[in-house]
Amino acid sequence: MANDAPIALTILANDERVHYDDSWYAKPNSTSFFTTKANAIASLTFNGTLIQAYGVTGIGGAQATFLLDCIEVPTPPLSPSDSSIPLFNPGLQSDEEHQLTIRTMNDSLEFTLDSFLITTHPSKEITGRDIPAFKSCAAPIRVASSEKASTNISKKHGLHPGVIAGIIIGVAAFLAVVIFLVIFLRRRSRYPKRISAAEKGFNIIELEPMDGKKSLLYDLFAFKRRPTGSTPPVSNTRSHSTGIFSSVIMIPPFYTSTTSGSIPDAEGHPRQ
Question: Does the global pTM surpass 0.85?
């Protein structure tokens, strides 16, 4: 039918088809409604394939969640505004009766509803006596995405998603440190520390010439074999010299006399 073509219909915020709880107030000399409380509920039941909501979020950027037939629809954060902006535009819906529910999220921030724009057929437009009763979404809300589900769970338990992510990262870091320590201790016990020759008590051969003076060969050899940080060994030159001279045949001294007399012979008798 030509007269039943889809039309765009504007519904003002003060229309009788819009339901508000006690947290909302009408703005003086205006068709808008506003609230400054969290969890304030506004709802509109309509027949159509498209709906858009318009309002003001204020300088503080008041936020709200939007539900179609008690199913939360993911939406980007609302931008701060001091004039009417699009608040909700979910796209095309099935051509049947729907309920849009708006739930505010902030205390002390003013959230204002100005109007709704729906696409509907004149024959299906809800007016006057046809307005259905408000359907409360107080029961557990079905969500339209896993991301929103995790957000709702965190809100239910009083934990912000950032806190949950921080806890998970902290636990993972702790487990990584524990695993590293276990591997490190096992490798250390499997491969004992190497002990140098000086610590084992092995003697290092020293080269020293017979005259007790260190040669260039001695210096090079001792430098390479000497452990780092050790003091050079003190060579016992005295005992070495004693050993050499102990093997020399002792020669009796010659006796000289400044007085007159004879020199004794080998048996001690004076020579004639």
Answer: no
